[in-house]
Amino acid sequence: MIMHFSMNSQSAQTRLTSASLLSLLFVLICTKNVWAQTAVELLQASAVQGGLVVVLGCDDTELLTALRSQDAYLVQGLDADPAKVEAARRTIQAKGLYGPVSVLHVDGSKLPYVDNLVNLLVVNSPCQVTQAERMRVLVPNGVLMEQTGGGWKRTVKPVPAEIDEWTHFLHYGKALDDNVGRYFVNSRQVSAGGAANRGAEQISGGALWSR
């Protein structure tokens, strides 16, 4: 009778362990789906169709990888915690995505970018970076998405008065009227085949075309 009771207990424990593993697997799948859906919602709400996407906070690696929804996006996560950065790197490398998706350790309130570089900046956790610093790194018409209690707050960086749209070849011959775009004229392009002088022909919608 004692042996019979022990076998029943072992069987019940096995069933309990299996149920726990299934529950954990279900939670992990749901979490992944949630962040995939969050990434879709973020990209749709921001209306950013490509470029550099920066996420402040590496708590959710699934969000970083999900934001790389197509080749048009280059995603980079920033975090002040070295342990989180290392964990995120291992996870991204295991997925075979490191490169198009990467993470950096940052310490302080200064973002490691030049002015007007980031197309989409996502803030999903508290950080020391000021609003002014966030806007500094965004391109004109770049988007800041901040997580709030009720969802996401969208802020668009305005286009400075000294910049306008070059929708036609060399701005209808008025390239020098644009105090910022003028510096792209006679720019120098470097490639594997060498360097060549190029003229900026069109600057519109946040992109520059030359031939």
Description:
The chain has 2 domains: 27-156, 3-Layer(aba) Sandwich (Rossmann fold); 170-210, no CATH class. It contains 5 helices and 10 strands; from the N terminus they run H-E-H-E-H-E-E-H-E-E-H-E-E-E-E. Residues 1-7, 21-32 and 182-202 have low confidence and may be disordered. The chain has a 6-stranded mixed sheet. It has 211 residues and is an alpha/beta fold. Helix content is 36%, strand content 28%. The protein has helices at 2-46, 61-67, 82-94, 131-137, 170-173; strands spanning 51-56, 73-79, 101-105, 118-123, 138-148, 151-156, 187-191, 194-198, 200-204, 207-210. The protein is globular, with a radius of gyration of 24 Å.
Structural key phrases:
single chain; 211 residues; alpha/beta; Rossmann fold; 2 domains; 6-stranded mixed sheet; two-stranded antiparallel sheet; 5 helices; 10 strands; 36% helix; globular; disordered N terminus
Lateral strand order in the biggest sheet: 3-2-1-4-5-6
As for the CATH topology of the largest domain, it is: Rossmann fold
Mean pLDDT: 74
Helix content: 25-40%
User: From N to C, what is the helix and strand string?
Assistant: HEHEHEEHEEHEEEE
Structural class: alpha/beta
Broad CATH class of the largest domain: Alpha Beta
User: Which range does the strand content fall in?
Assistant: 25-35%
**Fourth CATH level, the homologous superfamily of the largest domain:** Vaccinia Virus protein VP39
* Beta strand count: 10
The count of domains is 2
Q: Regions with pLDDT < 50 over 5+ consecutive residues? A: 1-7, 21-32, 182-202
Q: In the CATH hierarchy, what is the architecture of the largest domain at level 2?
A: 3-Layer(aba) Sandwich
